[in-house]
Write a structure and sequence with these properties.
The complex is a heterodimer of chains A (257) and B (138). Chain A is mainly alpha-helical and 257 residues long. In chain A, 47% of the residues lie in helices and 7% in strands. Chain A is globular and about 50 Å long. Chain B is 35% helix and 0% strand. Chain B is built from 6 helices and no strands. At the A-B interface, strand 3 of A face helix 3 of B.
């Protein structure tokens, strides 16, 4: 009995300190900037349009493809076990390459090397759906980029890009997302730009889209030349944003206006 | 003679608008601005872009920004010359400003191809906006 009371008391202290930690962390997911209707849409798996893609991704996970005739599940088994936490640590260095890649690229490495199947189209619905399915297995887990010198170099490059002014409007990412987050850019509340919810279903796109696509939208808004498809700059920004959001829980697949 | 002509031509280019201290006293286009056209430019979110950041007395535009002070009373606080300088290149007054340089193309990097070497507004559009802002006296 006493022991139980002690445990309850300890749990109370622990929860309180956790609540304090959260209350003092000024970082906010873009989820919190949305109205209650969109938050509800994201929270309800039967209403979140991204979940249709997740279902398609689950089917692809189980599909035998390529000359190897293997499915993802043949190697990885139950995704709920094997993929838990994976999306929370990408971009990361992964074999057979010796440099960081994003989750989509990692999936395609499995396609081409282990399944002996053609790579899925970058940004295409099949890869987005499979990425969303894999990312769902990390829902609620803290973002945890690995300690790695190659990744660190990429995070530093991203931090630099984030602060650099560019485009005809001469703005940096930081101009909006650090210095003016929470304010209104015309009708839109400027979020802090945490990549917690990707891939997202964006109502404006009427589609599931990647973080890269979101970054391209911001570049276009700044009237800056988007980097070409597959450019290292996107990966660097993604690595930096994930590091900046370290410890925040993944809330993917997100819904955004 | 040639030198004078070259200097005159140069002064028409965006890069060489003469600025005195905190003001550009003369019209960039040599023409007066039209306040009604200026209001339309300010209201238009793909032309002036002003209401992305500022609010202003333009009630029909519902979504206005709050990254910057309201444009209300701009004509009280500043002379037309001062307004013109702010629009041409607000970096002259505050190097850290986020207000875009509307009539300068230098000091910019990675400008999108379709906007390269173009100013955000033309000389006459700047004059129209200055004329409109100058009417905002309360």
């Amino acid at each position: 009995m006493i022991r139980l009371r002690l445990a309850v008391a300890l749990a109370g202290v622990f929860c309180a300190s956790l609540a304090v930690a959260q209350a003092t962390d000024p970082r906010r997911s873009g989820y919190l900037e949305m109205g209650p209707a969109l938050q509800k849409m994201q929270d309800d798996d039967t209403a979140n349009p991204a979940m249709l893609f997740v279902q398609a991704g689950a089917a692809t996970w189980a599909e035998k493809v390529g000359t190897a005739g293997k499915s993802c599940a043949d190697c990885h088994g139950d995704a709920a076990v094997s993929m838990r936490g994976v999306a929370a640590r990408y971009p990361a260095v992964t074999p057979p390459l010796d440099r960081p890649v994003d989750l989509g690229r990692r999936i395609n490495l499995c396609r081409t090397t282990h399944q002996q199947a053609p790579a899925l189209e970058a940004e295409g619905n099949d890869l987005l759906a499979l990425s969303a399915f894999v990312t769902l297995q990390s829902r609620g887990l803290p973002i945890a980029p690995p300690e790695d010198s190659k990744l660190a170099a990429m995070q530093a490059q991203g931090a630099d890009l984030y602060k650099r002014r560019q485009g005809q409007l001469n703005l940096s990412c930081a101009s909006c997302h650090d210095d003016n987050a929470g304010r209104k850019l015309a009708g839109a509340t400027i979020p802090q730009a945490h990549p917690t919810g990707y891939p997202i279903y964006r109502l404006e796109w009427q589609a599931l889209g990647s973080l890269k696509r979101r970054l391209r939208n911001c570049l276009v808004g700044m009237r800056a030349e988007p980097w070409e498809e597959g450019a290292a700059e996107y990966l660097a920004l993604e690595a930096y944003l994930m590091d900046r959001a370290r410890g925040m829980p993944l809330d993917a697949p997100g819904v955004r206006p | 003679m040639r030198g004078v002509l070259a200097a005159c031509l140069l002064s028409l280019l965006p890069g060489s608008v003469a600025a005195q201290q905190d003001s550009i006293p003369h019209s960039l286009s040599g023409q007066p601005g039209d306040p009604a056209r200026g209001r339309a430019i300010v209201a238009n979110r793909t032309v002036g872009l002003c209401l992305l950041c500022h609010s202003g007395p333009i009630p029909e535009e519902r979504f206005q920004g709050n990254l910057a002070p309201s444009l209300e009373g701009a004509g009280l606080r500043s002379t037309p010359g001062q307004l013109r300088l702010r629009l041409v290149d607000a970096r002259r007054l505050n190097p850290d400003t986020i207000m875009p340089p509307y009539y300068r193309t230098e000091g910019l990097t990675r400008v999108a191809r379709n906007f390269q070497d173009k100013t955000i507004l033309s000389a006459q559009q700047i004059e129209d906006v200055v004329a409109y802002l100058a009417t905002l006296k309360d």
